[in-house]
Amino acid sequence: MRNNLFLIPGLTTHAKNFLVNALNDYYSKYDNYHYILLSFHKKNRHPSNKLKTECIELAKKIKLVSSTNEKNIVIAKSLGGVIATTALKLSKTIQIDKLIILGLPIVLGYPPNINLLKDNSPFSNYVSEYIDLFKNLKNKEIHIIQGNEDDLCPIDDLLKITLDYKNIKIHVIKGGNHDFDCCKKTEYKNLFKIIEDKINLI
Fold first, then answer.
1. Model-level pTM?
2. Lower CB count within 10 Å: N or C terminus of the chain?
C-alpha cells in the first residue's frame, strides 16, 4: 500500500521550489508514498466566496486520487494552508490523516483590533471576511511550522489563536522568516527533520 503525500504550495515561486525540492528529496528515499503536487489559481485574487469554490475543487482532487485503504498527508505552505484547512471544513468526504502547515497566515481576514491581532499580510485581498481556520477541525492532527521572525505571520499571534486547540502542535524555527530562507543551516535542517518525522509517524 502506498500512502498519499499532497503538497499545496504558497504564492511565491521560491516557497514552491523550497517545498518541492525538500519533498522530492524525501520521496527519492522512500517508495511507500504517492507524491501529488496540487495548486490553486494564484492569479485570481478573489473574495472568500470564490475561495470557497476553489477549496471545494481542491477537496475533489484529493478525493479523486485517494482510496479507502490509503493514508493521506497534506503539507501546505502559507496561503496553501488556508486552502487546505478550508477544504477540510467544507468537505465531509475526504480523509486527511495529518496536516502539516509551514508559515500559516494565521490572522488572515481578522478585523483590526479584534483580540489585539492585526492582519498586516498581503493575503487580505483573497478574502472579504474573517476566516476561522480551525473551527470544526478539533479531531484532526495539525502541525504548524512557523519561523519566529515571520513578519507576515507573527508567532505570538499564532500562539494566541491556537491556545484552545489541543490537536494543534506548534514547531518554531529560530531565525525563520516567512519563506524560511534566512535561518541558520542547523535550523533549516531541523525544519526538514520535523516534516520527515511527522510523515514517518503516520
1. 0.80
2. N
Q: Which amino acid is at 177?
A: N
Give the N- to C-terminal CA distance of the chain in Å, as an integer: 13
Tell me the per-residue pLDDT of 148-177, one tens digit each, with 9 for 90 and over: 998 777 888 788 778 888 899 999 999 988
Residues 3, 32: contact at Cβ < 8 Å? yes
CA distances 165 to 68, 99, 108, 144, Å, are: 27, 14, 18, 12
Q: Which of the four CATH numbers 3.40.50.1820, 3.40.50.720, 3.40.350.10, 3.30.479.30 does domain 3-200 have?
A: 3.40.50.1820
Q: What confidence score (pLDDT) does residue 172 get?
A: 94
Domains of the chain by residue range: 3-200
